[in-house]
Amino acid sequence: MNTVKRTTFSILLLGSAVGCSAPSSSGHQSKVSETPNYTAYYTYPNAGGNRFLPNANMNLLADSTGVAKVDLPGVPIWLVSVRTNETVAWVVSLQDGTLMAFRWDQGNLLPLDLPIESLRPGMPPTVVVSGSGEISIANTLVGDMGPATAPTLIGRDTLRLAYINDKRELVVREENGSMQMLPVNALSDTRIVLDGDTMALLTDPATYDHAALGNMEEPTTVSMVRAEPQLELTSKIELPEAVVMEAVSPLWADVTGDDEAEIVVTLANTPESRGAAIAVFTRRGDLLAMGQLSPGGWRHLLGVAPIGPAGEIEIVDIQKPHVQKIVNFYRPNGEVLDIVAHATSYSSHNSGSTNIYMSLMGDFDGDSSNIELLVPDADKRLMKILARRLEGKVDVLGSLDPGGVLSTNFSWIASEHESFFAIGTESKELRIWYSKKVQ
Questions:
Q1: What CATH number has the domain bearing residue 354?
Q2: How far apart are the C-alpha atoms of 205 and 185, rounded to whole Å?
Q3: What is the pLDDT at residue 380?
Q4: Dihedral sign, CA of 78, 388, 265, 195?
Q5: Which of 253, 260, 305, 258 is nearest to 279 (CA)?
Q6: Which domain covers residue 25, as residue numbers?
Q7: 199-237: string of b/e by CB count within 10 Å (b at 16+)?
Q8: DSSP designation for 427
Q9: In this structure, are residues 186 and 145 in contact, taking their beta carbons and an 8 Å threshold?
Q10: pLDDT at 439 (0 to 100)
Q11: Contact 139, 119 (CB under 8 A)
């Protein structure tokens, strides 16, 4: 085994960083065969955890864009959009863990049978579609998974699942049922995110009493683990004492434009309550850049995308989404992330929830050139499309009415000819916008 690289940095950086911003893409995607045997779909848009859709080109504001609605028997909390051989479909998880599914049929939403009826309440589903179009709920394929996390598909040729068990170990289960285990002391509700064959997950939790994400434990390290040919811990980001990461997963994204994905996280300084900051690390664990501290509270990291006026890569967060509700756009300036634009009155998270996926970035005005941010307003009763067309400015292109208070992650999928954007609300409704693909 190679020597594990552990990197720490001075706590002074948390107190002295001045700005915030960074470029990046969605991160690398695994190399896949032309006809994969399995495809996984998550409550976030890609396996790297970034909420950027490089292939989304949908005009959500066009008069020709339709809206389909389904009444549900309970409040939805998780939503997964999938593509099968013949159509697209949506798997919905309600507050009590009940699972429901619907498929698209020429403008209609029809019920779709699932192999199981429910998961533990609050558990985010991972949906796997086989090459023949069969839908499986991957959570049920492993028996000892922790109650607050979800499995990740490793590769696409076999049904190889990575997950966190109830002993906080990283487990990879092969399709034949054999397993590898690696003791990592994982955060109990961490998501495993992928860049190629490298997994990143949050580990070594410490007590942190902010509880924005539902409990009082937050990670102090990020572990990078190679999945092939066997589990191997390759590097580890270690924070100074009294600093944690307030998140349920790191995020892979190419922030520097070097065609190699970096790790992006939200840091929080615990004993002095000095606030939170966005930080970017290499996959080897070196700190590249960090942004300014918020005055206490949390920064909700939304993602990384070429959303700048000239396509510059920028990091986007919401500063204190339950109180201040400020969207910040960052670019790197040496070792500092500078805030280059901001907008007020937006909230992307419900306090105490592990749903950190209530936003997306992509081409949502259908111009096939610019990237926009789709994010809830302060009350979560509207979704606004924000654009960065001029330096220092954030423009509102338009808004969508969800028909109630938003309660799920944002989810996008495309069929051969159509694009779909879906959300769920506290009004017990699934609502889907659909349109012909923009050419």
A1: 2.130.10.10
A2: 8
A3: 95
A4: positive
A5: 253
A6: 5-436
A7: bbbbbbbbebebebbbbebbbbbbbbbbbeeebebbbbb
A8: T
A9: no
A10: 64
A11: yes
Beginning with the edge strand found earlier in the chain, give each strand of the sheet holding 372-376 in spatial order: 52-57, 360-363, 372-376, 383-387, 395-400
**Predicted pLDDT of residue 23:** 31
Q: Which amino acid is at 272?
A: E
Beta pairing partners, 145: 165
Q: What is the pTM of this model?
A: 0.90
End-to-end Cα spacing for the chain: 49
* Separation of alpha carbons 130 and 159, rounded Å: 9
Pairing status of strand 360-363 against strand 52-57 = parallel
> Would you call 428 exposed, middle or buried from its count of C-beta atoms within 10 A (0-12, 13-18, 19+)?
middle
pLDDT of residue 272: 53
CB-based contacts of 14, cutoff 8 Å, min separation 6: 243, 267, 269, 274, 277, 290, 293
pLDDT digits (tens, 9 = 90+) for 7-50: 444 333 333 222 222 333 333 333 334 567 999 999 999 999 99
Q: Check residue 81 and give its pLDDT.
A: 98
What pLDDT score was predicted for residue 45? 94
Beta bridge partners of 130: 38
Edge-to-edge strand ranges of the sheet holding 135-137: 38-41, 127-130, 135-137
Count of domains for the chain? 1
| Residues of the chain with confidence (pLDDT) below 70 | 1-35, 209-216, 270-273, 352, 439
**318 burial level (CB within 10 Å; 0-12, 13-18, 19+):** buried
Apex CA 375: angle with CA 372 and CA 379, to 5°? 150
